Automatic annotation (TrEMBL):
Cellular component terms per the entry's GO annotation: Golgi apparatus; late endosome
UniProt name for this protein: FPL domain-containing protein
Source organism (scientific name): Punica granatum
UniProt-annotated stretches for the region Disordered: 501-529
Pfam family, one: FPL
Amino acid sequence: DEIVSFPLYVEAIRFAFHEENMIRTAIRALTLNVYHVGDDGVNRFVASPPHAKYFSNMVKFFCKQCIDLNGLVTNASGKSEPDLIAKIFSAVDEIEDTLYYFSDIISAGIPDIGRLLTDKILKHLVFQLLLPSLRTESNQEGQIGSITSLYLLCCILHIVKIKDLANVIAAVLFSQPEAVVSNRGIKVNGIVSSHKCIDERQQSGDESVTKENSGALKITVPSSSSDMMSDSGDCTIRKPSTVSHGVRETLLSYIRCGNDVQVLGSLSVLAMLLQTKELDESMLDALGILPQRKKHKKLLLEALVGETSGEEQLFTSEASSRRDSISSELDDYIERLKEQYGLSNLILEEGASPRVHRFQVLDVLVTLLCRSNISAETLWYGGWLLRQLLPYGEGEFSSHHLLTLKESYRESACALMGETRGSWPDHVVTILCDEWRKCKRAIEAPSPRKEPKYILLSLLRPSEDGVPSNSSYAAGEKMCETVKVFVLLHQLQVFSIGRTLPEQPPIGSPSDSSESSRGKTAGLDECGPKAGTEIKLGDAVPCRISFERGRERHFHFLAASVGSNGWILLAEELPLKPRHGVVRVAAPLASSNPKIDEKHPKWLHLGIRPSTLPFLDPTKSPLQGKAKARALVDGRWTLAFRDEESCKSALSMTLEEINMQSNEVEKRLKPLVSLDAISGSSNLAPHPLFHKSVSPLNS
């Protein structure tokens, strides 16, 4: 009745860690077939010593894969070489394959193996490798960086869908191990807890944060207001007293004060916990990330079945606060962690409750949305999470939150209007409409659109080496970021007063260009001129220019705008049709920055920027395995006129058309940027599920 020998299985697992990937794949397929046989004798054989050691070795092998991946990520940070990216993609695929293998083993339904593998994943991977990496600097052999750790936590929750595993990981986020801050000066791989960190936009007298050369993090209470943190926003802590903080606090501190990749990684972990169906809702509530609609659904169900507490909590905020406490499920898992894994330092903060934790999460998300040093893509992720927590309006926003969001919105609106006088005003409206649709889909989506591996890929965003900061290419990137941030904050303003978002942004209609304008007089339309197009020369000024050394050409120079578009035209006059010409060269009017030469008053210098932004093409992204979009170099024209008056006339004409173009873009954007328009627009219908009457945001 007992299996004493199983050569096929025993000999196969000897090759489980072979250097050849195809051999490892074959062995995994074989072992999974064995686990799915369903024979009790086979199950006892594979789960008993010494064969059970295979599962421990598999987890250790996976830990080595994680460390190897971290090495690749560290070496490739900030680079975009195809070979490095390919190696990271390959390592990520292997890691995810191994996690799917773990999931398949557990789903085979052998209880002893399921418990054993879950136990080993927690002990060797989560407790010993991942969570410590969120605390201490990765300067010891065998450790990994915080970004890799955040990615792996997301992968585990996403792939290994085991209830016990998910709930234990959630419970251990409340851990406060002594090793987090040591007197030996170990550096913290992040910042201090969210409610201990002072935001760059908000001053508080509770605590101060300063930076020491040693890099150690410690907390002290200031003796005077002059002991506040500097305006730089650095968040470090000083002697004499040391305080440890849980992983949850570390994640919130990343969002509040961390760099762009730390913010993205922390948001991804919170989003993955939110999306993990195996996680008890009470655990989400304890973490402060239970969506409002789920909380209301739970309380309504309690009220319907006759539990008065549910009815009272649903309709009475005071009753809700009285009964608000950490769930018994979390207490059970914490006791289990203490007894089974010896984590005796799992201590909940005094007065901790889902209500307090929820407010902390909302507070750091609002703070994040007001940060100017975070990419728009990451802010969109934060907007999605905020929308998940508060889907129908301002119910749990404090007055400070609303005021902060409104102030941040005003700053972003000013930045957007500033782009109308920048290098790309002719693209602002088009990009805004496109980003409006993308942002609306992103924050209303049921789940984040980005996979966990995007955390690692965001480290590989290359800096544009050799691109001048004052180039039109750099200005175009800045303009796109400005538009994305404005669109997000605008949509959150609409959402915060309980209204649904329109499919299109409420921008003004294009103005009808006057028939006397240069563009209309020349016979141009919004599509613009093409080489060989016949136009009326009108106010065109004769000039000379040399595109090749030793070869000078004669043209008529004309600056013209139609609506939000504008061009600089060089046309050849038709000999048989006076004051008519054929366009030979056309360039964008915006960013031309006309200037008369100081030594030669008959010369006019013009800057020439590209007509399009190459980075707007997603197929050219280096993360897609394509060649990186080249940053086109700005050009320059020097036009020679026959006298100074002609040169001044050309300068005046160019400046006038630039001003008309910018004014048109401003006019179209004004209906969109006003806070009064947001709260009073008839285009923004109240959300059908928003049952509260709220005052306008700017009242």
